[in-house]
Design brief:
The chain is an alpha/beta fold. The protein is built from 5 helices and 3 strands. It has a single domain, classed as Barnase, Chain D. The chain is globular and about 40 Å long.
Length: 113
């Protein structure tokens, strides 16, 4: 996600990147869907292309609500990652039917694998 964030900043003119990494302590207070939604809304920049990047989304309670709320506003490009088995299940596809693209990420080097 960090590499993608750098790519956006280098290649998209007039962009605002809202990046939340739930592995970091500073985002501990955003682990409820309402708080996540409020944070994203507060960091929206009207005159810019807004990207929402969220690492380890499964750490947010009822995250599907927050994602559906911001998606419905049609003013964000949303990218989420997760390592929970639920995120790989058909249940997640049902939650966001017709609104997702899955991107599988593999190690860059054999040594990492």
């Amino acid at each position: 996600m960090k590499s993608f964030k750098e790519y956006i900043k280098e290649n998209v003119i007039n962009c605002n990147v809202i990046h939340i990494n739930y592995n970091l302590k500073k985002y501990e207070n955003l682990k409820e869907s309402n708080k996540l939604y409020e944070y994203i809304s507060e960091n929206y920049e009207k005159s810019m292309t807004n990207f929402v990047l969220i690492d380890e989304i499964q750490m947010c309670e009822d995250f599907d609500n927050a994602i559906n709320w911001i998606h419905a506003e049609e003013k964000y490009d949303i990218y989420i990652t997760g390592s929970n088995a639920f995120l790989l299940s058909s249940d997640l596809a049902t939650l966001f039917t017709g609104r997702i693209f899955s991107i599988e990420v593999y190690p860059f080097f054999f040594r990492i694998y």
